[in-house]
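Illustration: Transcriptional regulator.
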Amino acid sequence: MTAESDQARRQQLGEFLRSQRSRLTPDLFGLQGGARRRTPGLRREEVAQLAGLSTTWYTWLEQGRDISLSAHALGRLANVLNFSTAERAYLFDLAGKRDPQASTEAEPAAPPALLAALDTIAGPAYLLDHLWNALGWNAQAAELFGGWLDGDNDRNLLAYIFLSPAARDLIENWEGRARRVIAEFRIDYGHHIEEEAMQALVSGLTARSPFFAQAWPIHSVIGREGGLRRFNHPTRGALEFQQITLSPTTRPDLKFVMLV
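Result:
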């Protein structure tokens, strides 16, 4: 990040806080309004006191100065300003911090419309959560991924790739793909590093897969980009697809994967 973009981000943060502060009325917090009150909404010192912050530090935040608050202090500020989920996420993005609440709140089940959309795809398609568990899939995906989406199997994609012999036979250049999958998964791991289920998944894979145990400590990180995927299917032979991965705007923690 350049100095110019960093300054622009701090300026946007200050403007955002001022805008949100001005829309709150003192009576919501049991504070005195009065005709002599010239500040619309809450005063800076009132927000600071309610959030347990120094008035000086909060003022500097609104002024766009180069300071940093802890993630927990930002969380208190979001609570005082009564932020929506989207506003809270925007606050943490502007502040360059990870929201500790984001990794502890359980997400609701996959939206029914997303699950229904899987059956409208002509090729294999499936829906993953942030742990890479399959939440839904179509018949074409079940037929392609024997040992994962067919029958009564572990629905976790990582467990399938690293623990199932069927995956090694199906995926062309299994070792290269497996290393890339680990690098792609690093991003989700970083977003949910404090989650017990995430730690349990990584610990289990490390204990049961020598390949995963060897590759995981390398700390490779690659964005999930899709692209060419080749398979050696036991009955259909050599297959080739282009993989497309979409993130629903209402559920960015999910991945809608299509093989075209």
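Reading the tokens back as a structure: The chain has a mean pLDDT of 88.
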